[in-house]
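To: structure desk
From: M.T.
Subject: fold request, one chain
Message: Could you run this one when you get a chance? Sequence is below, nothing fancy, just the single chain.
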Amino acid sequence: MTERNYRILKFRIGLIPSMLAACFIILLVLIWIIGSTGQRKLEELRISADESTRAYTKRLKLAIDIRETATSTISRARLYHAARGIGIPGPVYKISLNRSKFKLGKLLDEGGKLWSANAETLPAEEIAAWRQLSSVAADFWTVIDDAQQTAPLELKEAIKQANDPGDVFIELSKIEAPNA
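Reply: Done. Structure tokens follow.
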């Protein structure tokens, strides 16, 4: 072997470990970039899913509160009307009914703001359920207000004929959580 060939061979042999080391470093850098990008995207996805879950939980809690308050308002209206029918004196039942009506009105207003503000991002079933609830709410208030004005026998018939808003509240609470 000549001196020149020996030097070229030695240079090539010395170049292989350097090239392997450089490629290994490049590979490590690429793995680090992919890992940090994936981790960042997973964090963004986690935050988005958390926000979606919190918003759904808030709407579900509001729907359950509306349902409970509507049920309480109905029972208080019946109690007020029954107490009035048998001649129990005192404003206790009327105060309790008015408090319950006020709380229900406040929850319905809050629900209207919540569902109308997010109408474009909510599932269609939730929007449909809220619209149905809104349409029944006027009849509900009419029946409750009539309960304070009518005689006991007339109230029973009015309640039987009116749409039960509890059914709408049940439908609101049955809506499943969006897939996040």
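Reply (cont.): The chain has five helices and no strands. Let me know if you need anything else for the meeting.
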